[in-house]
């Protein structure tokens, strides 16, 4: 039997730095689990369907999304169906997850955050209520770690916007406000956070050993289903 392939599915970005970060994440995951293919659902290719058509044997698709909205619930299943691949398992998205909350806290500390400083979780935003619910769960996880309420701001699509949340916190008397970037990689959305008026903006989650382990764990969890799907075809 061929080795079960891992297909990492990301959103896509025109930022070369963001594309390089996704590639670096895939390379780091590959060191743990073997060859890892990257695909995108928007902006650039290859698409998940194109990658899956090149794979023989079972495959596990890991959606590299921090919340499960339209891309996870609609785009990824459609791409799998369009590929015609007979033995694919799709795992749940990367987030929300306590692992990501831990990385968010470390990124905040690196940006200069100290206990007592206000925190805004900056997410891309979505029109899908399921994705917004996931962002609220992520904010709750981070709130437990910073021992204070974490407000949510969105970069696009949803309300309130990050600058408005930062302004509101300052109007409420907060002296120092930091933005936790609930984004996987650099790109236009993260660049916008520099103008949010915060005292510091944390780096995106990016390539972190804990996130590499999380992707590898998602992949391993999907292997049995992918192999079973292959056996049904025989």
Automatic annotation (TrEMBL):
It holds the Pfam family CbiX. It comes from the Bacteria. InterPro entries: CbiX-like, Sirohydro_Cobaltochel/CbiX. GO terms for molecular function: lyase activity. SUPFAM superfamilies: Chelatase. This is Sirohydrochlorin ferrochelatase. It comes from Rhodococcus koreensis.
């Amino acid at each position: 039997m061929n080795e079960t392939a891992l297909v990492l599915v990301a959103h896509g970005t025109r930022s070369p730095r963001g594309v390089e970060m996704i590639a670096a994440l895939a390379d780091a995951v590959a060191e743990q689990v073997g060859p890892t293919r990257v695909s995108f659902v928007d902006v650039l290719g290859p698409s998940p369907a194109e990658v899956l058509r090149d794979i023989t044997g079972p495959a596990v698709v890991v959606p590299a999304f921090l919340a499960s909205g339209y891309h996870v619930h609609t785009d990824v299943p459609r791409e799998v169906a369009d590929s015609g691949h007979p033995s694919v398992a799709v795992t749940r998205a990367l987030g929300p997850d306590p692992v990501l909350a831990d990385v968010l806290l470390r990124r905040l500390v690196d940006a200069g955050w100290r206990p007592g400083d206000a925190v805004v979780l900056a997410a891309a935003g979505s029109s899908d209520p399921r994705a917004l619910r996931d962002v609220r769960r992520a904010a709750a996880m981070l709130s437990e770690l910073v021992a204070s309420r974490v407000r949510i701001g969105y970069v696009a699509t949803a309300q309130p916007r990050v600058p408005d949340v930062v302004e509101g916190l300052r109007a409420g008397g907060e002296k120092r406000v930091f933005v936790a970037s609930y984004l996987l990689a650099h790109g236009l959305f993260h660049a916008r956070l520099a103008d949010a008026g915060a005292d510091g903006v944390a780096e995106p989650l990016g390539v972190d050993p804990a996130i590499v382990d999380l992707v590898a764990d998602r992949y391993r969890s999907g292997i049995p289903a992918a192999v079973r799907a292959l056996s049904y075809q025989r």
